[in-house]
Design goal:
The protein is α/β, with parallel strands linked by helices. The chain folds into 3 domains: 5-270, 3-Layer(aba) Sandwich (Rossmann fold), CATH 3.40.50; 271-317, no CATH class; 332-552, Nucleotidyltransferase, domain 5. It has helices at residues 9-20, 31-46, 53-61, 72-83, 106-117, 136-151, 156-159, 209-215, 239-251, 279-282, 290-305, 312-317, 332-336, 398-403, 417-428, 443-451, 467-482, 492-499, 525-534; strands at residues 50-51, 84-85, 95-99, 129-132, 163-165, 169-172, 178-182, 196-200, 225-230, 260-264, 340-342, 349-357, 363-372, 375-385, 407-410, 431-439, 462-465, 486-487, 501-505, 512-516, 549-552. A hairpin with a 6-residue loop joins strand 19 and strand 20 (512-516). The two termini are 38 Å apart. Pfam families: TerL_ATPase (PF03354), TerL_nuclease (PF20441).
Amino acid sequence: MATNYRDIPELQEYFSMVENGGKKGFKRVSKWQKKLVKFVKKVFENEDLIIKTDQLSKYLSLQKYFDFQLFEWEKFIFTLHICTFRQDGLPRFPDLFVMVSRGAGKNGYLAFEDFCLISPYCEIKQYDIDICATAEEQARTSFDDIYNILENPAHTKKLKRFFYWNKEVITGRKNKSKIKYRTNNAKSKDGLRSGKVDFDEVHAYENYDNIKVFTTALGKKPHPRRTYVTTNGDVCDGVLDDLIEKSQKILDGEIKDNGFLPFICAIDDKEEVHDEENWYKANPSLQYLPNLLEETRKEYAEWLENRSSSSDFMTKRMNWRQGNSEVELTSWENILATKQEVEAPIQGEMAVIGIDYTKINDFASAGVLTKRGAKFVWKQKTWVCKNSADLPRIKYPLHEAEEAGELEFVDAPEIDTSLIADWIEEQMQTYSIQMTTLDDYRYALMKTALERLGISYENKNIKLIRPSDKIKVEPIIDSAFRNHNIVYGDSSIMRWYTNNTKKVKSKKYGNYEYQKIEAKSRKTDGFFAFVGAMTEHEKIPEEQQGSDILPVFIM
């Protein structure tokens, strides 16, 4: 028989706090939480779900061993993630994503959740739990929270009847379930038989390599679960951004949830930071933690004095990614806004080609720049030499760009320039190329390959770019980013290239110039090819018949 969610205090109390606010609830609530409450209510109203209230009560009784009581938001997600089931007996929300600001208690919550699942109250045998993070210290955080409870003299004698433990593994005696902490070494995890996997500080994951190893081991035990906990972070276009995008689409009704429960707390706009009442949007525990509130006030004052050196305040305390305004090319929001669709090119559409590479035995990129009204549309191709010494340092998943057709690996001592010329020749079958751009000191290697296409200095259809040309076009590019007029399509590698670029004051010219943030592992070739093409953007008319931009993907 289905459970009436209105009879469950752990749900109703949280619903009331979000919907009523003020003295009866949270001082301020983010849009994410308002959408979540509507989403959860709709799920219960449309599905016959069962909440195992007896089991929930037993689990919550274990709070007596912790030095804290769960807050309302923690009881809410615990009820849904651990104790809510479909009619077929499977968990309704096996996957939980929690993004709350620093100090909210996410690791304490994770420790409680895992402690419950290896306790005698969990009936599943050998329900092993792996706590994963990119660094051992972080992976140990929730593990050590449980270990310290077991080592507490006030509880040790009693708990020895139900658990045995050491500094590497904690085991429930009745169900033989184990908790272990794991670090970011995906190669050594084959053969896992996890019941539940925790990913701590997901913002640090740049790709899915380690996550895939652990999640593909799920399903061998009943009720497979995943819990992702994190603050915001500075890794752009990584796992965290995917989870946030997925959460938004679920809460906006664009996709089915597929058992994924998104719990996100963050300010709704960066300007909200200046009103202290809005801080509660990012930290649902803050109204109960006066010491944390005082520390947040102190950090806010320091951030106001030096926003660059105190950028962690916005990222970690407000869950709003700030970046470093002194070096970033543009905001991540603006880079993400390049993810727009565009209609197929028109036969004979005017365009400019841009080419860039640092070393021909490393990376090389070329692209086609067109215009659609005020929009600058860029389509690129990258070639990567398999013998590049920098490949082991690169964390970006190059194989994904290869699968998307935007990247080609070259198994040779260096990238043959004829490969670039062949790609340009293909573009010439569709586009009317008005100009090709290339740095003047890279022209020598490309000269012969381009001349067979009729592209030469003598034919006046190649522009050899100088540093001063890039500096002159920087204000135009900056304005286009801010107004979301740069279109890459769904090109993850172009977002990566762009995010790897910084602006610095030119000592010679006084204006901004582009530089790499880091020379070896953060490539910029695709973006610099785009900049080169932009120096000749006036060669392309803004209006070309039959061209329209489709709506921006909402992230």
